[in-house]
Amino acid sequence: MTTATELDRLMSLMTGDEKHDAAATSTLDVLWTLYDRVLGPDDRFFLSKGHGPMAFYAILAAKGFLDESELKTWGRPDSRLGYHPDRTRVPGAEISSGSLGHGLPLAIGTVFGLDAQKLPGDIVVLVGDAELDEGSNAEAIAVAGRQGMERLTAVVIDNSSATHGWPGGIASRFAVEGWETRTVDGRDHDALYHAFTEPHPRRPLAVVAVVEPKG
Q1: What is the pLDDT of residues 165-176, one digit of tens each?
Q2: Whether the Cβ atoms of residue 183 and residue 210 lie closer than 8 Å to each other
Q3: How far apart are CA 194 and CA 175, in angstroms?
Q4: Angstrom distance (rounded) from CA 62 to CA 36
Q5: Which range is least confidently modeled, 8-17, 63-72, 155-164?
Q6: Alpha-carbon dihedral angle through residues 27, 29, 33, 39, given to the nearest 10 degrees
Q7: Overall average pLDDT of the 151-179 stretch
Q8: Which of 167, 185, 176, 170 lies closest to 203, judged by CA?
């Protein structure tokens, strides 16, 4: 059984000066809840907040996508575990990311593609609160809301790192475009599970996962 202590141990195997610790650790509980309790075999997860991918790699190792011995190679020139995930090299990575603002538009395109091919599965994309400053996300939020993309979930990690923040809070940014929104403690696995799994018919879902502010 994987525990928080075990995840911490897997994270500790990755060392170096370019760890983006705050970005990496802020996503750990959301990632674990998704991979352990929420995502099904037909679902796809997009890590848009690709900088600081240590938590993502730790979860992939805990779930058998990676051998944990590979974690020690993280960031080396001969390693496939780079500072930004590369979907052509990392098993389990659906998109290459790190340059911010691309995950949500890619997720919307994937929903259109799955719908056109009548294929099953939901799309979950993880973005950061500061990443919402990217203009591409503003367009994507509007499109998904107008299209009523029930198969799409965006989880926003809110560690108070956005430069200007959002009037009325992050959830309001999505709600005004027609999304179902839920704001929960980003460290509470049960709260996250319920936020992800309760129905949101004919609307995309935005889960705002609040964690400790970036120091």
Answers
A1: 888 899 999 999
A2: yes
A3: 19
A4: 10
A5: 8-17
A6: 10
A7: 92
A8: 176
Output the six-digit token pair for 149.
Answer: 């993309």
**The pair of three-digit structure tokens given for residue 184, joined into one six-digit string:** 């929960």
Q: What's the token pair of residue 193?
A: 């599970």
Averaged over 11-30, what is the pLDDT? 80
Please give the model's pTM, rounded to 2 decimal places: 0.93
- Crossing angle of helices 4-12 and 54-62, rounded to 10°: 120
pLDDT over 90, % of the chain: 73
What 3-state DSSP class applies to 157?
strand
- CA 8 to each of CA 2, 16, 23: distance values in angstroms, whole numbers, following the listed order: 10, 16, 15
Report CA-CA distances (Å) from 211 to 16, 22, 52, 119, 167. 24, 10, 16, 34, 19
Please state the length of the chain: 215
